Description:
By secondary structure, this protein is of the alpha/beta class. Helix content is 40%, strand content 15%.
Amino acid sequence: MTTVPTITLNDGNEIPQLGFGVFKVDPDETERIVTDALEAGYRHIDTAAIYGNEEGVGRALAKSGIARDELFITTKLWNDNQGTQAAHAAIDESLTKLGLDHVDLYLIHWPSAFRGLYTESWLALEEIKAAGKARSIGVSNFQVPHLEEIIAASDTVPAVNQIELHPEFQQRTVREFAVGHGIHIEAWGPLGQGKYDLFGNPAVAQAAAATGKTPAQVVIRWHLQNGLILFPKSNSAERIAENFDVFDFELTSEQIAAIDALDANNRVGADPDTATF
Ligand code: NAD
């Protein structure tokens, strides 16, 4: 069976570098699709309260019979549950839906800065970790000033920052800050969410032709060889397996450099600084 490399987070916990994400996976199909992913070998699942599919994830986990300590489960605090009391209630609700007594990673989903609550929420996540309900805690969509603020206000540096990151949007500023502070980056939308022709780009297509792998596998390898954590999403069992079959080849430094050169500030999702949710 494939062994996925793990990354040691700044709190000593280990995270499988490749997982499976369930954003926009229909709640009615989640149990089947996560079961497909577990059967393909994934052990790291990334969900969120707002995805509405934590119950389906939980059913798939329970049905799988896989030991809890072999799984790495992430969920996220939604924006309208920021603040101390709401965050404590939200993790309890997520754990109930997932059928778990703890998650491996709990994230603040967005800074949602207009609410003025992300630092208070971060302190609540520290309490949630102390209570054993999350083994690791981190953030998502945080920009450098948001990170600076919570680091200054607390005793905990986030274990991860989960941000939009793909070849045309490489987030060098946030990555540099993260590296300097021991924060690992998780790349969401690692395949660009299919919103531009990433797979037809010559740098990707040529690497695919040279390695005999698919363009999606090349992009996943680019993330892995850049030290990023990722969890591409697909509803199809075939692509779920394809996206996991990435440990039998390596990109050369030239192939990596050609994809590194695609950075074009092409954000395909919401901008954390202007988002109004
Ligand atoms: P993604 O970049 O993983 O793209 C998914 C799309 O790529 C699929 O819908 C499919 O159309 C296509 N695809 C997948 N495998 C393919 C293959 N082998 N060949 C061709 N096409 C393929 O986008 P995503 O789902 O948005 O991101 C991955 C995960 O990141 C999510 O499921 C979620 O867990 C997380 N996420 C987090 C946030 C956040 O705000 N924290 C936002 C978006 C996503």
